[in-house]
Specification:
The structure holds two protein chains of two kinds. Chain A has five helices and five strands. By secondary structure, chain A is an alpha+beta fold. Chain A has one domain: 2-Layer Sandwich (Heat Shock Protein 90). The radius of gyration of chain A is 14 Å and the shape is globular. Chain B has a single domain, classed as Udp-n-acetylmuramoylalanyl-d-glutamate--2,6- Diaminopimelate Ligase, Chain: A, domain 1 (3-Layer(aba) Sandwich). In chain B, 35% of the residues lie in helices and 18% in strands. The chains are: A alpha+beta, B alpha/beta. Chains A and B meet through helix 1, helix 2 and helix 5 of A and helix 2 and helix 3 of B.
Chain lengths: 141, 118
Amino acid sequence: MAESITFKFDVDGSDFTSAGQASADVKKNLRQLGLSPEIIRRVSIAMYEGEINMVIHAGGGQAFVTVSENDITILLSDKGPGIKDIDKAMQEGYSTATDNVRSLGFGAGMGLPNMKRYTDFMEIKSVVGEGTDITMRVDIK
Amino acid sequence: MKISTIKDLLEADVICNEELLEKEVYSACGSDMMSDVLAYVKDQAVLMTGLVNSQVVRTAEMMDMVCIVFVRSKQPTPEMIQLARESGIVLMATKRRMYEACGILYSNGLVGNKVNVG
């Protein structure tokens, strides 16, 4: 693969039921590109956790997935409330999600730690009141 | 363990993708917290859960899981069944409770992902 390809997705923040559609589409696209199942799984899970976060905390946003020769980069961008304390948010078990979100199976405070676990690089840029950009990279070995 | 064996052991009713019952599963995971499920990766696993919403199927799809068993006779929505059909995930429902269902599969040799303690 000499050139990189970027896929762009709009994540609808109004409907929890349809969350995950962008991640499912990414998974299909990566399969078509012939990437290994393990790489595809890591990218899909990291993006899916991010997508769920955008839906439950930020009212949706945009996702950009760029596949190049050496790596896959995921940029998740939202105009939500921002993250007040990023170090705290990265701790397993810390969550600001509502009981309603917990009853749906999320909000255990595992989303961001999982995203870090499945990627080779992760950076969070967040401004309270303006939004959050998360960049993740998975290296293709 | 074959998915058909899981069906027999749990006396479960298959809801969709019956033609995939001869597939093998190598590990299992029982949880109602999808983020806990997502923290655990293992090839060709079965998910046992009492949670019913589309994100259960999405979670299994992201993790390449091959089968979801709903405990306490919970029934998936038509939307979930449609998603599972598209992703080739077998859905089934058992009358057993979570603890019992996990115990039956474990004692029959499906030991899941061992965690190192201490």
